[in-house]
Design brief:
Largest sheet: 3 strands, antiparallel
Shape: rod-shaped
CATH architecture of one domain: Sandwich
Bound molecules: calcium ion
Strand content: 25-35%
Number of strands: 5
CATH class of one domain: Mainly Beta
Distance between the termini: 41 Å
Helix content: under 10%
Length: about 110
C-alpha cells in the first residue's frame, strides 16, 4: 500500500495513484493506493520489479503530480522439478560382468 498526502483544500488536495508506465503484473487502486498482483509471478523468470507510482491531485485547472519508486522483490518458492542434463543416457555392458559391477553413474549437480 502506498500513501501520499496533499495539504491543499478540495480537489487540489485529493490524490489519485497510477503506475507510470502501467505494469502488466500489478495494478494500483487509484484512491486507496493498494497494489494488487494481476498475473502469476515467477521468480525463475523475474525476481524483482521496479515500478513508478504517480500521485496526481484532482485540481481541474492545474493538476500537480509527483513520482515515487516502488521496488518489489519476489521470494523464491520450491516449485521446480529436477532437470536431467546431457540426455539421452546409454551405456554398454558385457554380458559376463560380475554382479554388483557399476553399470552407470548419474551425478547430481
Ligand atoms: Ca495539490
Ligand atoms: Ca522457484
Amino acid at each position: 500500500m502506498v500513501n501520499a498526502t496533499d495539504p491543499d483544500q478540495g480537489t487540489g488536495g485529493s490524490v489519485l495513484f497510477s503506475f507510470q508506465p502501467p505494469s502488466s503484473f500489478f495494478t494500483i487502486d487509484g484512491a486507496r493506493g493498494t497494489v494488487t498482483v494481476t498475473k502469476p509471478l515467477d521468480y525463475e523468470t523475474t525476481s524483482a520489479y521496479q515500478l513508478t507510482v504517480n500521485a496526481t491531485d484532482q485540481d481541474k485547472l492545474r493538476p500537480l503530480s509527483r513520482l515515487a519508486n516502488l521496488a518489489i522483490s519476489i521470494t523464491d518458492v520450491q516449485d521446480m522439478d529436477p532437470i536431467f542434463t546431457n540426455l539421452p543416457y546409454s551405456t554398454n555392458i558385457e554380458e559376463d560382468v560380475p554382479l554388483v559391477s557399476v553399470a552407470f553413474h548419474l551425478y547430481p549437480t
